Amino acid sequence: MARDESRTEGGRQSREDAAARASIAVRPGEFQHRQHRKSEKVFELKGVGVRYSGVPAVKEIEMDVHRNDVTALIGPSGCGKSTLLRCLNRMNDLIPGAEVEGELLYHGENLYGPSVDPVQARKLIGMVFQKPNPFPKSIYDNIAFGPRILGRKENLDETVEQALKGAALWEEAKDRLDANAFGLSGGQQQRLCIARCIAVQPDTILMDEPCSALDPISTGKIEDLMIELKKQFSIVIVTHNMQQAARVSDRTAFLMVELDADEDNRWGRLVEYDDTEKIFTNPTDKRTEDYVSGKVG
Asked: What is the DSSP letter of 93?
């Protein structure tokens, strides 16, 4: 009996130690406490891998992305987070020598099937990049660009207004719509790019480290915006910021780098994918615990 009590106490202490180490990276109260419902699967990844000129970048990714969730991809540099993100709207098609393996379903349809037009897919699956990239045009024309290309030329004023409101930029921009977009601050430019993305009414928004070039105040505005936008869109975000993943995401996928026997090649592999709070407070894999607690990375 004494030995059993000792083991119980030891297990409790181990869990407490793990939670304490996790708090190094994530402060208490940063989780968005959510009750997950069974929601529609937007993406289903089944053994997805990517090779560049035959060299593996990521291997055997198995995960689902759900509607109206923010899904975070975390992990050390070089583990294939951005490569994986680009798979979701076929941006890797634009890279010479890139090959995608496995099966990637989008609303149940093979995203890489022969009947799928990647340009049409990207209209439904928008992307916001690491650095703000407004066009050298007015604020208005930046937002109106996509709808015009798609032939949606009616009610452009309303479209621009709604997109800027959706990106929490309307109040700051409504009196300067004809001004050059480069006159906006970095944080405003990133929100402009988000507004430009949602103006074409996508289904899903991909974000590749959208706050890495921004100050803390602008970062906070983008994070608040993501939480609001997920009411309408499904969002997948790549981030190196552990606190950010904890604050904004519903689910988190942790990737790590693997090396072959000769250490000549390296690739990313999914270690663990679960509810964000579980990933940060009670992960299943020791490697996940070590990363989110700051012991490695």
From this structure: G
Cα–Cα distance, 236 to 65 (Å, whole number):
8
Q: Quick one: how far is CA 83 from the chain centroid?
A: 12
Q: Give the 3-state secondary structure percentages of the chain, helix then strand then coil, rounded to 5.
A: 40, 25, 35
DSSP string, 45-72: EEEEEEEETTEEEEEEEEEEEETT-EEE
Tokens of 71: 């899904």
Instruction: Supply the mean pLDDT for the chain.
Output: 86
In sequence order, which residues have a C-beta less than 8 Å from that of residue 78 and are 6 or more positions away?
A: 257, 266, 268
**What is the C-alpha to C-alpha distance for residues 126 and 194, in angstroms, rounded to an integer?**
9
Could you tell me which residues come within 8 angstroms of residue 142 by beta carbon, excluding any fewer than 6 positions away?
Answer: 134, 135, 181, 192, 195, 196
Q: What is the mean pLDDT of residues 215-240?
A: 92
Distance CA(45)–CA(110), nearest Å, equals: 10
Question: pLDDT (tens digit, 9 = 90+) per residue, 178-197?
Answer: 999 999 999 999 999 999 99
Residue 75 lies in a domain: yes
pTM, entire model: 0.84
Alpha helices in 133-285 (DSSP H): 139-149, 156-166, 170-173, 186-198, 216-229, 242-248, 276-281
Nearest CA among 296, 297, 240, 290 for reference residue 22? 290
Q: b/e string for 259-296 if b means 16 or more Cβ within 10 A? A: eeeeeeeebbbbbbbbbbbebbbebeeebbbbbbbeee
Number of residues written out for the chain = 297
Q: Decide if pLDDT at 111 tops 90.
A: yes
The pLDDT of 72-99, averaged and rounded, is 93
Indicate whether 49 belongs to any domain. yes
Q: List the structure tokens of 196.
A: 């430009």
Q: What is the CATH number of the domain that holds 203?
A: 3.40.50.300
Assess if residue 176 is contained within a domain.
no
